[in-house]
Design brief:
Blueprint (H helix, E strand, L loop, with lengths): L10 E5 L5 E5 L5 E4 L2 E4 L11 E3 L5 E5 L3 H7 L9 H10 L7 E5 L5 H10 L4 E5 L6 H10 L7 E4 L12 E6 L8 H7 E11 L2 H14 L2 E7 L6 E4 L2 E4 L9 E7 L22
Parallel strand pairs: 7-8, 7-10, 8-9, 10-11
Antiparallel strand pairs: 1-2, 1-6, 3-4, 5-6, 11-15, 12-15, 13-14
Helix pairs in contact: 2-3
Length: 279
């Protein structure tokens, strides 16, 4: 594929030799100001990705298109984001695939929404429930800032604790203070075999969600995990982990919707002989 030059309106990531990162939305005639001098946007527009440019004080930057991880860590936000390491786990463990219909709640700053949109592709759909209307415009600005406005995103200003309108959902992804309250609604919203994913900062939230999933009788393959992120430093003979790693950010809970009429009741609970578990 041929190189695509930068165009006006595009978001570009600038990297200096020290590893500092800055996002800039290109605008004809615009300038990026900082303590290392200013950089004219016109010097980037029309250039290929990977070009090296210098500020007015001769500080060099490499200009590239941001990865999704770069973008969500640097974009403006008014709420905590789901960290990229957790987003990756959600996409893989919940098996979010092209063409899937996914319901997400809540919207936050839009980091997880961006990843879900990319995963479902043009033939899928992401529906988002957000109870706080003031969160929606800035989150949409972040989503649009990463690329073309998606046609397959539907945002509803509503409280998911009160119910879910959609049915036959392929996936359900929740980042909420009390996700266990959504479990009864999820039973009717997810298709058989669909997967629910829950992001929870506190293990107390996880415990209550796990109890609700098991108590519902409609979910199996329940799994709880967390991910750590530890970069390594390689400078000559100095090869070691960096001093500060990203350890706990949140717990991830996953569960599979069972077919209607299927119960997680074990043979022991019905007085029958024990059999190897299947879930």
């Amino acid at each position: 594929m041929a190189a695509r030059p930068f165009v006006e309106g595009e978001t570009v990531l600038l990297l200096d030799r020290a590893g500092n990162r800055r996002l800039v939305r290109l605008r004809a005639g615009g300038r990026l100001h900082g303590h290392q001098g200013y950089l004219e946007h016109d010097r980037l527009i029309g250039e290929d990705e990977g070009v090296v440019v210098r500020t007015s004080s001769r500080v060099a930057y490499v200009a590239v298109r941001p990865r999704l991880a770069d973008y969500v860590l640097e974009m403006p936000r008014q709420s905590a984001i789901v960290y990229p390491k957790d987003v990756g786990m959600i996409l893989v463990w919940a098996d979010v695939y092209p063409g899937a219909t996914v319901l997400e709640s809540g919207l936050g700053s839009g980091a997880l929404t961006l990843a879900l949109l990319r995963a479902v592709g043009a033939n899928g759909q992401v529906v988002v429930y957000e109870s706080r209307g003031d969160f929606i415009p800035p989150a949409l600005q972040n989503i649009h800032g990463f690329g073309e406005p998606p046609a397959n995103l539907l945002i509803r200003e509503r409280d998911i604790y009160e119910g879910i309108d959609e049915t036959d959902l392929d996936r359900l992804v929740l980042d909420l203070p009390e996700p266990w309250r959504v479990v009864p609604h999820a039973l009717g919203a997810l298709r058989s075999g669909g997967i629910a994913a829950f992001y929870s900062p506190s293990i107390v939230q996880v415990q209550q969600t796990h109890e609700a999933l098991e108590g519902s009788g409609g979910f199996g393959q329940i799994e709880v995990l967390e991910a750590s992120y530890r970069p390594w430093q390689l400078k000559g003979r100095a090869v070691r982990p960096v001093q500060q790693m990203i350890a706990h950010t949140g717990f991830l809970t996953f569960a599979r919707r069972l077919a209607l009429g299927t119960s997680r009741a074990t043979p022991e609970s019905e007085g029958e002989a024990a059999a190897p578990p299947v879930l």
